[in-house]
Amino acid sequence: MSTNSGNKYRTSQVFMLAALLISIAAAVLIYGLTDLGVGATVGAFLLIFGAAMIVVSLTYSKTPDKFGPSESMYRMVFGAILVLVGIVAVLYSFSVDWFVYVAVFLIGIALIGLCAGLTNSKKSKY
Fold this sequence. Notes:
By secondary structure, the protein is an all-alpha fold.
């Protein structure tokens, strides 16, 4: 990855730490104030933290590395996967059949891969 030092990188890490603390606080509130259970609490944590990771990923370098995606794209896809797992975990707290979880997860992974592939194909060096 190309941006792993300097003030801008440290500032982005501070944003991620703040997002982590906010996500933990929101999950504790959801657990305490609702009767959704631990699955929804973990799902809400992953959902909030993943969304924050997507937003903070826009501050990283968008130039692709020689043999892979840019740091911004890597963090954006990882955040989207966290959001997807969070959605499935929250969905798990409701009474839905198991194939709905699998379908939502597979469709989400396919959409994330499709979007990342289409976005990265325009910026490739080779």
